[in-house]
Write a structure and sequence with these properties.
By secondary structure, the chain is mainly α. Helices cover 74% and strands 0% of the residues.
């Protein structure tokens, strides 16, 4: 079979590898969707359209026990896995393409556990898993089709973007992510490969994952005053996003991998369990919190809620858990943007809180991902808003980007 593939012209092999990647990552997105829903149903009972309602109906004791058991199982799993295998990040997979192959089964199990703990209520994002499996699949396809090392690296980056596109149904934003966050060169061939794989993966996963916006939100409009709001939100939210990015990066660098994970991670999950037994709003990757804010639910202590959510993400990552920070960042950005807009009302400036939430999400995502264009596309894609909002969102992202550069140059 491999000899037949090698007999094909190089261009055809590259095309077939890209199409196979798009279809494969679409199936990965479907598998992640079913795994997440299956764990949620097993842990908390019958699925509900309203995820917060599902958590609430499960009861405080059940929420507490599920997270305590999850912490023990996750700690044992990651201790054994990491004592036997080296888990390569997407960046490492790209850099080591052709030199070192990641262990397929270990990476698949690693990704599956990430999705499972989110389904059980962990305060981490699920997007890391499909990105890692997409990159893993791309590496094997590049080798199977005997592609050059340069194209293998591009394909691995495409796989990460396609995995993200499949689970969230945001192909354009995922394409931007590949170029901005993973640093793929802006070349016409790369554009073709990235767009082909992300859009095909989205199309394959769409019948199961769904193609509607993840978050329900009334249409938002902007006016001239919105440009002032964009600047103020960027000034107020960017320092908070920088602090969260610093904590998340520090937690990932110093993540427990030795024997201490066997007690530290269960304790971290127990802390989360104790909190969510009273406040289920902290359950999951941040989708519940973000939707509550977008739906206009009142929060008496929103600043404290956001601080606790961010610290829970840090606590789990620092003590050995793996997971993404994209959805937590979106939720924290929604809340921070809303808070910034409320602060303006204190001094007599009344602006649209819904737009403030979108501006905050854009600033927060742009900071944590180091990708302002991706952040704009994700904020619009997640909420189903019109691209007519691009001007105020771009202004907020641009001001935030300048603040970040200024801060980093002073370090």
């Amino acid at each position: 079979m491999k000899e037949r593939l090698q007999s094909l012209p190089y261009g055809w092999r590259l095309l077939l590898a890209t199409l196979s990647l798009g279809i494969g990552t679409g199936l990965v997105g479907i598998a992640c969707h079913y795994l997440l829903e299956g764990v949620q149903r097993l842990a908390f009972g019958q699925n509900r359209a309203d995820l917060l309602q599902q958590f609430q109906e499960a009861g405080a004791l059940r929420r507490f026990l599920v997270l305590c058991v999850t912490g023990v199982l996750a700690a044992g799993f990651w201790y054994v896995l990491q004592s036997r295998h080296k888990i390569l990040s997407i960046r490492k997979q790209i850099d080591l393409a052709g030199d070192r192959e990641p262990a397929p089964l270990a990476h698949l199990l690693h990704a599956s556990m990430q999705v499972a703990i989110v389904g059980a209520g962990a305060s981490l994002g699920k997007e890391g898993a499909p990105r890692e499996v997409g990159a893993l699949l791309a590496g094997h396809l590049g080798k199977a089709f005997s592609l050059a090392i340069k194209e293998r690296r591009v394909l691995i980056a495409c796989g990460a973007g396609a995995g993200l596109a499949a689970v969230y149904q945001v192909p354009f934003a995922s394409s931007l992510f590949v170029f901005e966050t993973l640093g793929l060169a802006y070349h016409w061939k790369n554009f073709v490969l990235v767009l082909s794989s992300t859009y095909l993966a989205t199309w394959v996963a769409q019948p199961i994952v769904g193609h509607g916006a993840i978050y329900h939100m009334s249409p938002v409009h902007w006016s001239a005053s919105s440009l002032f709001q964009a600047v103020i939100v960027a000034l107020l939210v960017t320092p908070l996003a920088l602090a969260f990015r610093f904590l998340a990066n520090r937690a990932s660098r110093k993540r427990r991998k030795d024997g201490t994970i066997l007690w530290a991670l269960p304790v971290a999950f127990m802390v989360l369990a104790a909190i969510v037994s009273f406040y289920p709003i902290f359950m999951g990757n941040g989708q519940v919190l973000a939707q509550a804010l977008l739906s206009g639910q009142p929060f008496s202590n929103l600043a404290l809620t956001l601080a606790v959510k961010g610290l829970l993400v840090y606590l789990l990552l620092r003590n050995g858990a793996y997971g993404g920070t994209l959805t937590p960042s979106f939720a924290l950005g929604i809340g921070s943007g809303y808070l910034a807009t409320l602060l303006l009302t204190v001094v007599g400036i009344h602006l649209d809180p819904a737009l403030g939430m979108l501006l905050g999400a854009t600033v927060f995502l742009g900071t944590t991902l180091r990708a302002p264009l991706t952040a704009i596309a994700l904020s619009l894609g997640f909420t189903g808003q019109s691209w007519a909002l691009i001007l105020p969102l771009a202004l907020a992202a641009g001001v935030s980007y300048m603040i970040q550069n200024r801060w980093e140059n002073k370090r």
